From TrEMBL:
The keyword Disulfide bond does not apply. GO terms for biological process: negative regulation of DNA-templated transcription. It comes from Mycobacterium xenopi 4042. This is Metal-sensitive transcriptional repressor family protein. One of its GO terms (molecular function) is DNA binding.
Amino acid sequence: MVGDEDSIAAVLNRLRRAQGQLAGVIAMIEQGRDCKDVVTQLAAVSRALDRAGFKIVATACANA
């Protein structure tokens, strides 16, 4: 990924946060947690990945 160090750091931070959230979702499923709670956390992971993707696109467009 091409971009300034701050943009790259922001994307990596978002992806690491999503990775942690996803690990939490996996643990919830393994523990047999309520489906509603799992889906809520899965939606949070999805939003985090969307934000990371938007940041990548914005950085690429700014550097084009």
